[in-house]
């Protein structure tokens, strides 16, 4: 079963909404984009799979976070400690099968932290390249994030699949 162009467009819009909510620092919008028990048709009074491990997130350098509460707390911390963030997405690939969608992309990130103590100027801007995988699930309310996994790209990695490691030609004995 192949994905319809509409499915791919809807997933692309959901993926874009995720990054735009991060850029705006809109925690309410960000929260609404993640899968919840209501999206799964589960009565949360008895069982909350989205709160006990169904959703997951890995930020660069962080351990895996599971559960809606833990994932959303992590984004609240990031938003509270980031004065400026902008994402330039490249290499976006979208695959939809049934009610599940996989998005891979490169996040070219420009961010800035709090201003130095006693200063009126913004904090320094830092650039970073991260590769990400976002998994979405179709719900009655549209496509929702099921999992986000982001890993830093090591300096010197050319993106050619070589991984930036030693080859037989340059390995030392």
UniProtKB/TrEMBL annotation:
Domain of life: Bacteria
InterPro entries: NTF2-like_dom_sf, SnoaL-like
Domain SnoaL-like: 11-153
Entries under SUPFAM superfamilies matching the protein: NTF2-like (SSF54427)
Pfam families reported for this sequence: SnoaL_3 (PF13474)
PANTHER family: NUCLEAR TRANSPORT FACTOR 2 (NTF2) FAMILY PROTEIN
Protein name, entry field: Nuclear transport factor 2 family protein
